[in-house]
Amino acid sequence: MKLLSRTLSTGLLAAAVTASLNAQAMNKDLAVSVDVDTKSNGDVIATLNITNQGKGNQKILSWYTDLEEEHIFKITRDGKEVNFFGPHYKRPAPTEADFIKLKSGETLTKSFELSGLYDLSQPGNYEISYDVESFDLFGKKEIPSMTTRTMGQQSMMHADVAELSSNSVNLWLEGVAMTKGNVQVNAKPTAGAADCTDGTCFTGRCSNSEKTSILSALNAADQITNDSVAYLNSHSASNPSTRYQTWFGAATSNRYATVKSNFNAINDAIDNQDLTFDCSCNKSYFAYVYPNQPYKVYLCRAFWSANELGTDSRAGTIVHELSHFNAVAGTDDIVYGQSGAKNLANSNPSQAIQNADSHEYFAENTPYQN
User: What is the DSSP-derived secondary structure letter of residue 118?
Assistant: First the structure.
């Protein structure tokens, strides 16, 4: 069965602290459509088309055109969003090489099998659309004239978050058993059973030097997490400090309590859970995890070249990845990099407290802030 699609244009959703400040501008240069096929073997295939309708070249961050890189589809069953079982990465901030360039009139077409990474196991009415957003979706831009609003002593700036979405396809599914999900992405085969040292396990052919580096980084991650917990306990929503506001924005009692709870959970994971580190990832990123599979962290190439402490460090990477687990803090990757995290804290504190890099940078605290 093939379901026809209609084409919607790109929107730029201006992120705001209150709904009354939200505004949306349209960019009609890109058009997006999704078709869905159900195969006789039960596979559910979504075909994504992104067309440059403008006269000049357009670009889009490649991560948001690849289901093995990002959670790019919004799928609901009977009105409730289903679980996504794919990996969550820690990456460096995007560079020009991370963007796809579309010439005028050019269409990017890609197909994805959905049942391996989304929970389509139950019968119901499903609604499927392509739906992504990022500060960097169409390339870094200088934040235009900011809207400034004083909230107590906090001056809040509202930066633009770019959003790209498609039509919605509706269909009934009897339920598709997951058979291909939760697999390693571009990883070497994992050799044998896990090798464990004092409750920390290693898979993916970790060398002795890599094991030593991991254990040292884990100890450093414990130190900066303990510092974060102590720091948050010594402050409050009414006295949050520059450090808190830099990475999480304006404090409310609920947001502050969420951040405290997140760091307590990260600390508990380091101190009390059996952690596994896998050395098999060949990607250029720092690391990734499957949020529904605690507590296994896949370490990638950038991890090994990072400093143990400091910005985007090995210790911070461990904090970042542990925060992703649903059993810990369930954070997401809304923005990457210190600049993006600071902008997010200024523009949308409610999202900042859900952002993994924001937690990492608060814990690393470089440059140092009281």
Answer: B
Beta bridge partners of 45: 37, 113
**Among the options 69, 70, 163, 321, which is catalytic?**
321
pTM (2 decimals)? Answer: 0.79
The question of whether 321 is a catalytic residue gets the answer yes
Q: Provide DSSP, 217-255.
A: HHHHHHHHHHHHHHHHHH-BTTB-HHHHHHHH-S--HHH
Question: What pLDDT is attached to residue 165?
Answer: 93
Q: Which residues of 222-241 are buried (b: 16+ CB within 10 A; e: fewer)?
A: bebbeebbebbeebebeebe
**Quick check: 38 and 171 in contact, CB under 8 A?**
yes
Report the alpha-carbon distance of residue 48 to residue 284 in Å, rounded: 26
How confident is the chain (370 residues) per 10-residue block, as mean pLDDT?
34 31 51 93 93 93 93 96 91 91 96 92 95 84 38 41 91 76 40 72 94 97 98 94 96 97 98 96 95 96 97 98 97 92 94 97 95
C-beta separation of 274 from 199 below 8 A: yes
Please give the structure tokens belonging to residue 242: 């520059």
Radius of gyration over alpha carbons of the chain, in Å? 21
Spatial contact of 315 and 114, defined as CB atoms under 8 Å apart: no
Let me know if 133 is exposed, middle or buried by CB neighbors in 10 A (0-12, 13-18, 19+). Answer: middle
Give the pLDDT score at 17: 30
* Chain-centre distance for alpha carbon 34: 22
Q: DSSP 3-state assignment of 203?
A: strand
**Tens of pLDDT, residues 42-83:** 899 999 999 999 999 999 999 999 998 999 999 999 999 998
Distance separating alpha carbons of residues 93 and 288, to the nearest angstrom: 15
Name residues whose C-beta falls within 8 Å of residue 126's C-beta, 6 or more positions apart in sequence: 75, 76, 77, 120, 170, 171, 172, 173
Residue type, 1: M
Q: Which residues contact 240 (CB under 8 A, 6 or more apart)?
A: 248, 251, 256
Q: Which residues contact 324 (CB under 8 A, 6 or more apart)?
A: 88, 289, 291, 330, 331, 332, 356
Vertex 268, ends 119 and 256: CA angle to 5°? 85
pLDDT value at residue 198: 81
29 to 26, 210, 262, 307: CA distances (angstroms): 9, 47, 40, 42
